[in-house]
Design a protein that fits this description.
Elements (H helix, E strand, L loop, with lengths): L15 H12 L15 H6 L21 H9 L4 H14 L1
Helix pairs in contact: 3-4
C-alpha cells in the first residue's frame, strides 16, 4: 500500500494547451464558479474541522545519515528503486499524523 498516491514530481509535465487552460481557469472570477453540486458543510462538520498544515510543494532535501534496522532497509529496498523516497513518505505521514 502506497502512502503517497500521486506526487507532483511523478506527474508528466503539462502540455502548452494544458497550461493555457489552467491560466484561463485561474483568471475566472469566483462569482462564475458553480457550487450547485457541492453540499454545504453542517455546523457539526465545521466544529470538527482542523486547519491543514501548510507544507511547501517540494521541500528541499537535506542529506542525512540515518541508522535503520537491517530488516526495515531490506523491505524498503525490496519494493524496487526509490527506497529513500519511500522512507521519506513514510516518515512524512508519521510526522503529520
Amino acid at each position: 500500500m502506497s502512502l503517497v498516491k500521486t506526487r507532483l514530481e511523478d506527474m508528466p509535465p503539462l502540455s502548452s494547451s494544458e497550461r493555457k487552460r489552467l491560466r484561463v481557469l485561474a483568471a475566472r472570477p469566483d462569482s462564475e464558479l458553480d457550487f450547485s453540486d457541492t453540499p454545504e458543510l453542517t455546523e457539526a462538520q465545521l466544529a470538527r474541522a482542523k486547519r491543514a498544515v501548510a507544507l511547501p510543494l517540494k521541500p528541499a532535501k537535506v542529506p542525512v545519515t540515518l541508522r535503520l534496522d537491517r530488516d526495515v532497509l531490506a523491505e524498503l529496498k525490496r519494493r524496487g528503486p526509490g527506497y529513500q523516497t519511500r522512507a521519506n513518505a513514510i516518515l512524512r505521514a508519521s510526522v503529520l499524523a
